[in-house]
Amino acid sequence: MRILDVGCGPYKYPGAIGVDMNPSTQADVLAHLDKGSLPFADNSFDQLRAVHLIEHVEDVIKTIEEFHRVVRPGGTIYIVTPHYTDFSSFRDPTHRWHLNSYSFIYFYSGGLHGKDMWYTRVRLKERRCTVRLLRLWRALGFELLVNHARWFRQFWEHYLSFVIRGKVMEFEFEVVK
């Protein structure tokens, strides 16, 4: 299985090809996503990992399009990012985007209001979305509800997330081509 770890930093995923813009990392390949495309052929990887990267990029749509390009059909894209209600989302001045568990619905077939979005042709299928909550809310069982009842996650995002704050989100998407 070929794995690409984009924005690998000092902790590259074991067995992956690491990409980062910083030469002081474990990167095998130096590339800057905001300044061009990844230096790999189309459909080169079975899995792409972007852990705490998407909140830093200049253009989320362009970045997801590039991820989609290098991952084979049926492959996976794994993204980890802070939930926008967590203080870590705003404490880092290099974070450009503050996302929630529905931020990537834009890339789903029929994702927004039952219609495909027209600014991109990229399509992803959500295999998994896991929201981690702050320790208190996890202990009280809210994390279980948010992650195991889609209707509750939507209710939480709309009405409760500024009180019962999120911490981090993990997404696993299947690439649809």
Q: What's the average pLDDT?
A: 95
Name the overall outline: globular
Strand order of the largest sheet: 3-2-1-4-5-7-6
Please give the number of β-strands: 7
Q: What is the N-to-C order of secondary-structure elements (H for helix, E for strand)?
A: EEEEHEHEHHHE
Low-pLDDT runs of 5+ residues are none
Output the radius of gyration.
Answer: 16 Å
How many strands, which pairing sense, and closed or not: the largest β-sheet?
A: 7 strands, mixed
Query: Cα distance, first to last residue?
Result: 19 Å
Helix count, per DSSP? 5
- What share of residues are in beta strands? 25-35%
Helicity level? 10-25%
Q: Which structural class fits the helix and strand makeup?
A: alpha/beta
